[in-house]
Amino acid sequence: MQHIAFIGLGNMGAPMAHNLLRAGYRLSVYDLSAAAMDALATAGAHRAATAADAVREADIVISMLPANEHVRDLYLGAGRVLECAPLHALLIDCSTIAADVAKEVSDAAAARGFAMLDAPVSGGTAGAAAGTLTFIVGGDDAALDRARAVLGAMGKNIFHAGAAGAGQVTKICNNMLLGVLMAGTAEALNLGVAHGLDPKVLSDIMAKSSGRNWALELYNPWPGVMETAPASRGYSGGFGSALMLKDLGLAEQAALGAHAATPMGSLARQLYQLHQQGGHGQLDFSSILQLFQAPSR
Ligand code: NAD
Question: What EC class is this (predicted)?
C-alpha cells in the first residue's frame, strides 16, 4: 500500500487522515499540535518528529494547512518538502490559499521534478468525517489520474477545474458566495425573529421557498434549528470565522487582479472583519448571526 505523509491535522485534516487509515494507507502525520498527532497515532499513524521526517519516504504528500504562509513555508522553506521528499512523490495541497501562491509552489515543485496538484475541498468538517468531500483540482491530467484513488478515499466528487491554481480560483469563487449566503441567511433569520417568528418555522418555510440555500438548509446559523449544525453546539468546530475572513480576502485580491467587481463579496468581508474584531474569529462562520443580534439577546 502507498505511504502517505499528511501535514496539518486540524478540523479538516484530522478526519481526512482518519479516512486514509481506514482505507488501508500507511500514514505518517505531522502537526504543530501534539494532541492532534496523538489522536492519529492512536488510530495507527506514524507520528513524525518534523514535516521533513514525515515526507522522507512518502509516495504521496498531502497538506491541509490554514493559509498561504503555512503552505509556502512547508514546501519552499529550507529543509522542507521540496528538499526532503523523494522525487517520485505526488504532492497534493488541499488547503485554501491564493491561486498565485498555489502556482508559485507548483512551479517550484515542477522545477525540481515533482508533480503537484492544488486540491482545495468543499463539504466542511461533516463531509471530511463522512469521506464525502468535493475536491476541486488544479494541475495536469496525469497528476490527477495518479491522485484519484487517494482523493476517492476522502471524498466523493473530484472536479478538474483546469491548470495549476485553477482549483483555488474555483474554490474562492465558491467561498465568496458562501460568505454572502451565510451573512444574508443570518440577516433574514434575525429580521424574522425580531418580529416574533419562530426561527425553525421561518427556516422551514424559506427552505421550501425562493430564499433556499445551503447555509439555510444544511448549516443553519440559528442555535437549535438544526441539531447537527455548529450553531447548536456553541459554534464550536466547523469552519472558523477567521478562515472565512481569510477566504473573502483571497476573493478580494483575486478580484483586484482581474479587475472584477465583487461588491457583495467585499461587504461580506467587512462583516466578517467586524465579527473578528469582536473577538469571534475562532467561532464557526455561522456565528456571523451574532453581529446582527441585539446585544441583549
Ligand atoms: P484548522 O485551523 O482547524 O487546522 C489547521 C492545522 O494546521 C492545525 O492543526 C495546526 O496546528 C496545523 N498547522 C499550522 N501550521 C502548521 C505547520 N507549519 N506544520 C504543521 N501543522 C501546522 O483549519 P481547518 O479548518 O482544518 O482548515 C484547513 C484548511 O482547509 C484551510 O485552508 C481552510 O480554509 C480549508 N477549509 C476548511 C473547511 C472547514 O470547514 N473547516 C472547509 C473547507 C476548506
Answer: oxidoreductase
Tell me if residue 171 is catalytic: yes
Cα 113 to ligand 1 centre (Å): 27
| Any ligand 1 atom below 6 A from CB of 219 | no
Give this complex's ipTM: 0.99
- Using the CB atoms, write b or e for 30-40: b if 16+ within 10 Å: bbeeeebbebb
134 and 19 inside one domain: yes
Which 3 state secondary structure label does DSSP give 206?
helix
CATH classification of the domain holding 114: 3.40.50.720
Pick the atom of ligand 1 nearest to 122's CA. Answer: 43
Pocket residue to mutate for ligand 1, from 7, 9, 12, 63, most atoms within 8 A of Cβ: 12
Please tell me the distance between residue 269's alpha carbon and the centre of ligand 1 in angstroms: 20
Query: Using N-to-C axis directions, what is the helix angle for 13-22 and 34-42, rounded to 10°?
Result: 20
CA–CA separation, 105 and 30 (whole Å)? 20
CA distance 154 to 235: 24
Same domain, 149 and 179: no
Q: Relative to the CA of 246, which ligand 1 atom is closest? A: 34
Q: Are residues 156 and 224 in the same domain?
A: no
Closest CA to 251 of 174, 162, 157: 174
Q: Is 235 in the pocket of ligand 1 (CB under 6 A)?
A: no
Residues 46 and 186 in one domain: no
On whether residue 120 sits in a domain, the answer given is yes
Which domain does 279 fall in, by range?
A: 169-292
Summarised one tens digit per residue, pLDDT across range 77-132 is 988 999 999 999 999 999 999 999 999 999 999 999 999 999 999 998 989 999 99
Q: Is the CB of 10 under 6 A from ligand 1?
A: yes
Digit-coded pLDDT (tens) for 235-249: 998 999 999 999 999
- Catalytic hit among 103, 171, 200, 208: 171
Q: What is the pLDDT of residues 215-272, one digit of tens each?
A: 999 999 999 999 999 999 999 989 999 999 999 999 999 999 999 999 999 999 999 9
